Fold each of these.
Amino acid sequence: MTGSNAPRRGQSVSELLNTASQVFRVSLLKCLPFAMIAVLCVEIPNIYWVMTGHSFPRGMPVDIGYWWLSLATSALAVYIFSAMMLRQLYVSGGFAVNAKQEMTVSVRRLPGLLMSWVLAQVSVAVGLLLLILPGIFLFVCYLVLLPVILLEGQINPVLALWRCVALVRPNWWRVCAAFVIALLAIGICFIIFAALLAILATLLTDLGPAFQAIAAAASIAAAAMVFVFFSALALAIHSSANNSA
């Protein structure tokens, strides 16, 4: 009997995107509320800044309160996004959702996740500053950071980042291409969405504040859908990388 010791190939770009699309479709409705809350958390510092009479055109805010609020709400957004990813995994696998379990697992993983997230940001920034390409390489590898921590239970930040690199590196170009194609497709959708809002704003000028509220809600929902899709893509990449290891 003969056999091959060659490593198994990961999913192709189209297969990764197709898997992500399938997970996105079956999980969108159940995950959208979590994603919308995460988006709102990210926007809280900006809302605070505007409500206190400031604006952004002149550069980044210098108020220390703004940055503390940003750190707190970012941590909360990561926590909610983690719970959403677990829910997405359960739904796509045909399991019943369990909000308590999702929250419990997420809060247990949160310290390691936050430390890994900070370390990932620093390493990507250093890579971009030094030679650019190392930063891009690491950014693509870190797309599976949440699945590595949430699903594999790797809470050591250094080992978690190393695991991401080990998983993605053999199929890095496929993962990068899938991410770029998804990003371009979503960018085109957002351009169309913005154009439609502009047309509606012209046609419904009489509604005034009511239309602005509707537009804001629609924008939050659209951003939340992007969160849900990229979560599905991260799960697809992680699953493919594990299967081809």
Amino acid sequence: MSSDLTGRHVVITGARGGLGGAVVEAFAAAGAVCHLPERSSSPPAVPDAHVIGGVDLTSEEAVRALYAGLPGLWASIHLAGGYAGKPFTELSLAELRQQLDINLTTAFLCCREAARKMAGTGGRIVNVSSRAALVPAGGSIAYAVSKAAVVALTACLAEEARGQNILVNAVAPSTMDTPANRSAMPRADQARWTRPAEVARAILWLASPENTATSGAVLPVYGNA
């Protein structure tokens, strides 16, 4: 099924991350007008995407200003985040708060402002959680907790937005085949990792007009893992 987003405005955070390039390419290929908030103001990796520089996604004021300055919004895709792993007994409160800030706070602020922007017109919101939030494992508790909070955020917002034609979902990838992961885990079975393009296709469908009923879902995208 094709996903035609011709002329529709879409925010994509975290566009320069390991998943970001594939998502921007997928949405641009579907005809979307992509708005990419970033701290820097570097040229976009995908032609015709609009980079909005100087945006701190953990700042309430910055995120409010970002969405207020956008035209009518169809979708908001929240890829911004980061991973940190450490044994639980060595984990500091500051490290926990850092993971909550980069993974949860960014998604919370963008979800809230996107929902406000879509009020009365409808739209699509897609967050990125992680397999770590759904399948218990040790060694990265702060990350797993922050991504589990994104799951709760997604489910609760979907309920609040029910009846407003705002569909809110999340994807939960397993380890993705990115340059950073290949460098960090050179001995892993990389053939089992999920490709970013596969995750991007799942996000594109959830954000497309073809999705008319799915909301509150957390879609596992595990590949062969």
